[in-house]
Specification:
Layout (H helix, E strand, L loop, with lengths): L10 H9 L1 H12 L15 E4 L4 E4 L5 E2 L14 H13 L6 H8 L3 H17 L8 H6 L11 H6 L4 H19 L1
Antiparallel strand pairs: 1-2, 2-3
Helix pairs in contact: 1-3, 4-5, 5-8
Zinc ion (ZN) binds next to loops.
């Protein structure tokens, strides 16, 4: 993973950092699949080859092609990670919350789009994961960062929900990815 950009500590640098499609893709892939093995959303096997020109993976098991967005709250959105990741960055770093108006100004999107993004990100924060949920069992399977799998029940029941918990974990993921890429 080539990465010689200093990891974003300000909004301006976050926007610049995630403006590079490959950097943003690497970042998302590392957050979703920390062990470096993308999981096919169709058959759940983790044996896929990367199609660099299309920024997609192709499952060697079932042949399905999938993006890093597949199975996440970003799945049905045409917005790129150059918008989503700075939005996450802003929300994670905003001590007093953020309005769709502020988000719209900062990212150069319409207020309607900003509202949609805020809504999705808040949903992710409530659920404690970026994965699209259909049930609690699935939530534990696909828990962001893959940490739930190694948690016992006691730890899991202690697991906080909501904004603070996800913000903390996202920050952890952000910094963890940053550390790895340095
Ligand atoms: Zn598959």
């Amino acid at each position: 993973m080539k990465n010689d950009i200093e990891f974003p500590t300000t909004l301006a640098s976050a926007i610049k950092y995630f403006a590079d499609a490959d950097t943003a893709l690497n970042f998302m892939a590392t957050v979703r699949w920390p062990d470096g093995k993308p999981v096919c959303p169709c058959c759940k096997k983790s044996d896929a080859g990367f199609l660099a020109t299309r920024r997609l993976w192709k499952c060697r098991e079932c042949g399905k092609q999938f993006s890093v967005k597949a199975g996440t709250i970003f799945e049905d959105s045409a917005l790129g990670f150059d918008k989503w990741l700075p939005a996450f960055w802003m929300i994670v770093n905003a001590k007093n919350g953020i309005s769709s108006c502020e988000l719209s100004r900062a990212l150069g999107v319409t207020q309607k789009t900003a509202w949609f993004m805020l809504h999705r990100i808040r949903l992710a924060m409530q659920n404690g994961t970026m994965e699209k949920l259909s049930g609690e069992v699935e939530a534990d399977e696909t828990y962001i960062g893959g940490k739930a799998r190694s948690m016992n029940n006691k730890q899991r029941s202690k697991r906080g929900r909501g904004r603070a918990a996800l913000a903390k974990r996202l920050s952890w993921d952000f910094w963890n990815v940053a550390a790895k890429s340095n």
